[in-house]
Amino acid sequence: MAEAALRQNRANRRRAQSFEHLVQAGLAVIARRGLYETTIEHITEAADVGKGTFYAHFPSKEDLVHHLIRHGFDELIAAGRAEAPVGRTPADRLAGLIRAQVRVLSRRRDLVILLHQVRGVLILQPEARQRLRREYQRYVQSLAEACRQALKGRRLGPAEARDLACAIAGFAAGTLSFDMLVRGGRSMQTPPGRLIKAFASGIAAHYAPARRPADGSRPR
Fold first, then answer.
1. Which of 55, 140, 150, 175 has the fewest C-beta atoms lying within 10 Å of its C-beta?
2. In 3-state terms, what secondary structure has residue 210?
């Protein structure tokens, strides 16, 4: 009985190791070759496993990409939830939320490239790959909720919260991807803190409650 359990534990460890090797290889190869050019053979060769091992974990390349996207967004969502409530003012809280997204992406060049390429696929094929689209929607929904928390006391409807979430996602990922582009794809530079603060302060000012004039008339 103990020997059978030991064999099972060993098999589970090998399976977990091969899974992790495939995940890391998938990220690295897609970042190097691009989503469109990467094949299952490229990934298994980089992971030093056979195709049978790949299919034991993932039915297709898209299933692996879905896993990578989902876990990338999980990391971004967790960072936002940990950071967003911190700060005395709405601008401070928004800046914290943005910094949290930038901090994750700035150390994940592979994730920036993957998110950028999958976003392009979803735009070009709006009716396809609904599983991947739902992951982007889940991320935007989480950011929208974090924005409402950061701007508590401000009236922010669902559509406005979604638009603001898309703007923050675009600021974080777009700034880093363009920085990578102009640097020739070699590295990324984190946006300076003053730029993040200015962006957050502008948003907070836009959604600040209108002040009643000193004469008591209604604000215009």
1. 55
2. coil
Task: Give the per-residue pLDDT at 17.
Answer: 94
**Coil, strand or helix at 181:** helix
Phi and psi (nearest 5°) for 50? -85, 165
Query: Under a CB-based contact definition with an 8 Å cutoff, are residues 91 and 197 in contact?
Result: yes
Contact 109, 46 (CB under 8 A): no
Give the residue among 127, 56, 169 at the shortest CA–CA distance from 40.
Answer: 56
Q: Is 26 exposed, middle or buried (0-12, 13-18, 19+ CB in 10 A)?
A: buried
For residue 120, the surrounding DSSP H or E stretch is helix 109-124
Q: How far apart are CA 65 and CA 62, in angstroms?
A: 5
Q: How far apart are CA 113 and CA 187, in angstroms?
A: 12
pLDDT-flagged residues of the chain (< 70): 1-8, 84-85, 153, 185-187, 210-220
Domains defined for the chain, CATH in brackets: 1-58 (1.10.10.60), 61-206 (1.10.357.10)
Would you list the DSSP string of 19-44? HHHHHHHHHHHHHHH-TTT--HHHHH
pLDDT at 181: 86
